[in-house]
């Protein structure tokens, strides 16, 4: 006999999509949304918003645009909002939730946003899976291995769920983020390992989804948004000693790289209003955070059009020699403007950003990095012309990049050219992976994954070896210099050592000991070095991963910029003499 009690997914009606999916009128919109009278129904407004919104052709240069508008019929609109749930059903009632975060730093930020939303609804957080009422996996889809890790973990959690005592609240399992967006059908229907599924733009809906799940049904919301940036949600930051924090400034990506799944799992680029970003950075500064990283899939294409004074007809500038098939978006407050404002909030707070795209590095961004001592001089590049320009404007800059081995059609000559590029650029840091084909991407539909796995692995190992060799040379050039280091805490390998990071984000290890404080009118006293302190460290040895030395003195970020104007560069050894060392 067929089991009629099987869990079935609950799907959203159009009415429930409205807060996240509808195109709100923006002051810089090229196609203004029609204004209706108060007597028109909400459904009528929704039809008009959909009909007048942009389509793919609006974003591509030279594309012909079909003016025929789609027809939205009444049977697509359901105005019954959550009628199956009681009014207080979204309250957490002190249920415990455990987050497990996988993948990039954006997923860490997503975890902080999701927790902020659930915390306000009365949920409690735990790090013990065995004690959790709800387990939420924040997932990554960038490579097959990352997804396989999640599949294995889901099976483990399902076994744990079945073993749970009947006297306890049944465990609910949810998948959030990119994997939820990419594999929604497989996760809900084929494997039946889940209770809740929420895409990157559906975290506001988590309380309702969990309420449905606690009622014994599956719940899903994987709709992508053209507006959602969570600008009004203050993330609950979790970092060691609270010294550093990541601040999301935008979501999504428009680059459509042939190998990448991100535009399909995180949607179009949307920039968070600058006022919201500045407010969060102000709060972090007041909390004593010493380092903030501005975060986005393509962070330096930031463009805020939320206020009228930001609007203009001028398109954004690209790096010299770069071009794009996409139409330049006019107007908006650009990344250089945001970086300028953020860096002025606290002169003793380091500012980093990740991940930038080479095409979006106009000279104004590079000049700003050069001028502001608290904007760290580490950036991403893949092209020699841009690298030369960066090194000319910012001497001593630290460079990092991502590399994939074995992309479709890659020949041995292509691989050798990549090795040559690494040798010439001399990156400080590299993130290297073997290519993993993703469904929906251009490569999946048009190309063939024709590089054998063993060849991918061999080439990957050669790339890693070249990176280590060149990074060792770069770091060894710092021997004898004095590096400005933000102390993070005790070294993992020895309680007698402390560690921190220099301006180029390279780990610096040095013995725990009292050092001279900043000079005063009455002289200089010694004091211990604590997490959150800035110290000058003279470098004595180096490898591809880290620097070693001994601490010279306490300092501050703003003070070092005055007393050590070239603290980032090769002139650092000369500056040591000015401290009487």
Automatic annotation (TrEMBL):
Record's keyword annotation contains Iron: yes
InterPro entries: Elp3/MiaA/NifB-like_rSAM (IPR006638), Methylthiotransferase (IPR005839), Methylthiotransferase_CS (IPR020612), Methylthiotransferase_N (IPR013848), Methylthiotransferase_N_sf (IPR038135), rSAM (IPR007197), rSAM_horseshoe (IPR023404), rSAM_sf (IPR058240)
Domain TRAM: 476-553
Cofactor(s) listed: [4Fe-4S] cluster
GO BP: any one term: regulation of protein metabolic process
Pfam family for this entry, one: UPF0004
Metal-binding recorded as keyword: yes
Molecular function per GO: 4 iron, 4 sulfur cluster binding; metal ion binding; tRNA-2-methylthio-N(6)-dimethylallyladenosine(37) synthase activity
Residue span, MTTase N-terminal domain: 95-215
Catalytic reaction annotation: N(6)-dimethylallyladenosine(37) in tRNA + (sulfur carrier)-SH + AH2 + 2 S-adenosyl-L-methionine = 2-methylsulfanyl-N(6)-dimethylallyladenosine(37) in tRNA + (sulfur carrier)-H + 5'-deoxyadenosine + L-methionine + A + S-adenosyl-L-homocysteine + 2 H(+)
Top-rank taxon, per record: Eukaryota
Domain Radical SAM core per the UniProt entry, residue ranges: 239-473
A GO CC annotation given for this chain: cytosol
Keywords: 4Fe-4S, Iron, Iron-sulfur, Metal-binding, S-adenosyl-L-methionine
EC code(s) of this entry: 2.8.4.3
Family: Belongs to the methylthiotransferase family. MiaB subfamily.
Protein name: Mitochondrial tRNA methylthiotransferase CDK5RAP1
Organism: Salmo trutta (Brown trout)
């Amino acid at each position: 006999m067929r089991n009629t009690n099987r869990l079935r997914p609950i799907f959203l009606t159009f009415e429930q999509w409205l807060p996240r999916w509808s195109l709100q009128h923006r002051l810089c919109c090229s196609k203004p949304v029609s204004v209706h009278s108060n007597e028109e129904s909400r459904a009528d407004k929704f039809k008009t918003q959909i009909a007048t919104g942009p389509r793919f052709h609006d974003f591509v240069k030279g594309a012909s645009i079909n003016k025929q508008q789609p027809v939205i019929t009444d049977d697509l609109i359901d105005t019954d909002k959550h009628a199956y749930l009681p009014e207080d059903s979204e309250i957490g009632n002190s249920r415990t939730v455990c987050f497990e975060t996988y993948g990039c730093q954006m997923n860490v930020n997503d975890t902080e946003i999701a927790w902020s939303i659930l915390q306000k609804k009365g949920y409690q957080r735990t790090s013990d899976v065995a004690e959790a009422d709800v387990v939420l996996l924040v997932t990554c889809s960038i490579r097959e291995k990352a997804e396989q890790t999640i599949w294995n973990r889901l099976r483990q959690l399902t076994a744990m769920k079945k073993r749970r005592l009947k006297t306890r609240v049944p465990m609910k399992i949810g998948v959030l983020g990119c994997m939820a967006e990419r594999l929604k059908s497989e996760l809900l229907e084929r494997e039946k390992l889940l209770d809740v599924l929420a895409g990157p733009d559906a975290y506001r809906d988590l309380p309702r989804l969990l309420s449905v799940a606690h009622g014994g049904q599956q719940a899903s919301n994987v709709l992508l948004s053209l507006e959602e940036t969570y600008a009004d949600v203050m993330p609950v930051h979790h970092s060691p000693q609270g010294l550093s924090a990541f601040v999301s400034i935008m979501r999504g990506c428009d680059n459509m790289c042939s190998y990448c799944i991100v535009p399909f799992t995180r949607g179009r680029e949307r920039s968070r209003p600058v006022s919201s970003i500045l407010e969060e950075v102000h709060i972090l500064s007041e909390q004593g955070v010493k380092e903030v990283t501005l975060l986005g899939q393509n962070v330096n294409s930031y463009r805020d059009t939320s206020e009228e004074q930001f609007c203009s007809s001028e398109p954004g500038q690209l790096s010299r020699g770069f071009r794009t098939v996409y139409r330049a978006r006019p107007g908006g407050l650009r990344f250089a403007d945001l970086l300028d404002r953020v860096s002025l909030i606290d002169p003793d707070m380091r500012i980093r950003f990740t991940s930038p795209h080479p095409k979006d590095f106009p000279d104004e961004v590079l000049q700003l990095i050069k001028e502001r001592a608290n904007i760290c001089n580490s950036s991403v590049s893949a092209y020699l012309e841009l690298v030369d320009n960066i090194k000319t404007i910012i001497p001593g800059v630290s460079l990092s990049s991502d590399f994939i081995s074995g992309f479709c059609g890659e020949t041995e000559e292509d691989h050798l050219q990549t090795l040559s590029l690494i040798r010439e650029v001399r990156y400080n840091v590299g993130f290297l992976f073997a290519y993993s084909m993703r469904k929906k991407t251009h490569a999946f539909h048009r190309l063939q994954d024709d590089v054998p796995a063993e060849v991918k692995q061999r080439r990957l190992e050669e790339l890693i070896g070249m990176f280590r060799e060149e990074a060792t040379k770069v770091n060894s050039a710092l021997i004898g210099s004095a590096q400005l280091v933000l102390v993070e805490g005790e070294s993992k390998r020895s309680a007698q050592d402390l560690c921190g990071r220099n301006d180029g984000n390279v780990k610096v290890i040095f013995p725990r000991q009292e050092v001279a404080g900043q000079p005063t009118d009455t002289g200089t006293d010694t004091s211990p070095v604590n997490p959150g302190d800035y110290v000058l460290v003279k470098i004595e040895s180096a490898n591809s991963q880290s620097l070693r030395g001994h601490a010279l003195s306490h300092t501050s970020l703003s003070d070092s910029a005055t007393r050590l104007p070239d603290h980032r560069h090769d002139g650092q050894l000369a500056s040591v003499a000015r401290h009487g060392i």
